[in-house]
């Protein structure tokens, strides 16, 4: 059955850079000896936090004003426009707009309510959690593990030294505002891995865990794992009124197509809107030589022979082609400033603060990077002290 599915996958996907699927021998890959045969296929992965930053930078470079840490409080229509109240780090403010796009994710219903729109949108909130443990297997491949509850769990290489295991599907109430990884979820993911891997895990082996809330379209399914990951666009507003477009559901792999379709729904309100353009456009840092990070690493290593290759590789992994912006003028390692460990230097933190809206140690250690996994508590504290000194905080 798996082979038939991969046969269809190979033929329905327009493979341009990824190899086809195939059977493989599982011997020596870290699994229990009873698992001898498997199948491989190729897919892509992304650091979701870096993807958010790349999109925000791209929007800024196209003229958008990006205001992180700003809460949407309320909005009302007035003379064919929206008048919205927002609350940011510097206090309350008011903005006007010809349209509002409600891409609030788990807070999509709260945004609808704050805009005095009908807040019943058929959304189900589902918590998904991941755990990070010391590396369970060698190699750059990941595993899809069939669990005993008919769900699949992924085990992926993570940050060089670790394995990322997830995710879970836990239904939440409609008013959930926060999530936290539960002991049951940790045990569930450990059990899923222990069914297959030779090295057995216990909750005490977890080095880090995190969770998120997915806002999925509620089709009445009782099992959260069966809820559709599709999306729906809902347009509120009578003829002549300023529109409110809400994005319901969706998933990361189709976010750019979703955005183009959202703008298509708003096109009647913006007669001068241009055509879609993102399908062939690189995100900031994505225009790599030959389309390969390896080629860019080699070019930078040749241009900066006084810098360690592992530092260059780390920066290219995080910033792509824009690693050159951080390295510019750094002929020797001391030019990178204070070393905090894990190839994190003051010069890169300066870049995070100046160009990527970082304002705290957590921003640097867990959002713009995952360096927090590799640093001691004292090293993490030093990062926080440095960030505060850069932004002028106490």
Write the layout of secondary structure elements.
Layout lengths: L1 H11 L9 E4 L11 E4 L7 H14 L9 E8 L2 E8 L2 E7 L2 E3 L5 H7 L8 E12 L8 E4 L5 E7 L3 E5 L3 E2 L11 H12 L13 E10 L13 E6 L7 E6 L5 H12 L26 H11 L5 H11 L3 H5 L11 E3 L2 E2 H10 L5 H8 L8 H15 L3
Parallel strand pairs: 6-14
Antiparallel strand pairs: 1-2, 3-4, 4-5, 7-10, 7-11, 7-12, 8-9, 9-10, 13-14, 15-16
Helix pairs in contact: 6-7, 9-11, 10-11
Summarize it.
With 394 residues, this protein is an alpha+beta fold. Helices cover 29% and strands 23% of the residues.
How large, in whole angstroms, is the Cα Rg? 23 Å
State the order of secondary-structure elements, H for helix, E for strand: HEEHEEEEHEEEEEHEEEHHHHEEHHH
DSSP helical segment count: 11
**Average pLDDT rating:** 92
Strand segment count: 16
Shape: globular
Give me the CATH superfamily of one domain: FAD/NAD(P)-binding domain
CATH topology of one domain: FAD/NAD(P)-binding domain
CATH C-level of one domain: Alpha Beta
Task: State the helicity in percent bands.
Answer: 25-40%
For the record, the CATH architecture of one domain stands as 3-Layer(bba) Sandwich
